[in-house]
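Section 5: illustrative case.
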């Protein structure tokens, strides 16, 4: 038997993000079998929540509801919950934390350059974008110019949308860069 744990906010949001609509939550008196009969959702969602103590799931749902990240409604079958747009944004931020750039066996000789110009009024977004660039392996050329030798166009597109700076960021694939020997040494390519 798998040992149960407390449900973190991240765990609750991640499970709810898999749902496309309202999900029936088990109350303390409902068994998992009854939940599966009542829920319109596939059983694996119920099994996801079965890994956690029910009280911690309910506590997490209550906190998320107060923050506007989930919507809760009572029905004849029990309590139903679904993730809100604000909650989906939070899930995307969790996915950013797990994002990595796949490093190919052999470097293709091209540099990936990100240039951004985000206004001072959006400083927190700019700083967050910069921090994520460094986290996924980019190195600064200047304050708002970063470089990486590996394919990462999809990752940068995802990052700029989630952070909320889609128009202030330009992504380039550069085939030739003068004086790039120091970068080749820094990234150990070439």
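Designed sequence:
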């Amino acid at each position: 038997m798998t040992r149960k744990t407390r449900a973190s906010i991240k765990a609750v949001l991640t499970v709810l993000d898999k749902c496309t609509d309202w999900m029936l939550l088990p109350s303390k008196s409902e068994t998992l079998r009854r939940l599966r009969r009542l829920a319109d959702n596939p059983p694996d969602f119920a099994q996801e929540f079965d890994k956690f103590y029910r009280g911690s799931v309910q506590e997490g749902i209550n906190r998320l509801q107060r923050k506007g990240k989930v919507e809760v409604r009572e029905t004849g079958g029990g309590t139903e919950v679904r993730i809100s747009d604000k909650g989906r944004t939070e899930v995307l931020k969790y996915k950013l934390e797990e994002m990595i750039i796949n490093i190919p066996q052999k470097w293709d000789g091209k540099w990936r350059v990100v240039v951004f110009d985000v206004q001072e009024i959006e400083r927190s977004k700019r700083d967050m974008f910069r921090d994520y660039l460094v986290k996924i392996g980019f190195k600064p050329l200047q304050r708002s110019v970063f470089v990486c030798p590996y394919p990462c166009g999809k990752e940068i597109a995802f990052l700029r949308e989630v952070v909320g700076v889609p128009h202030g960021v330009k992504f380039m694939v550069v085939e030739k860069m003068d004086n790039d020997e120091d970068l080749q040494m820094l990234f150990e390519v070439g």
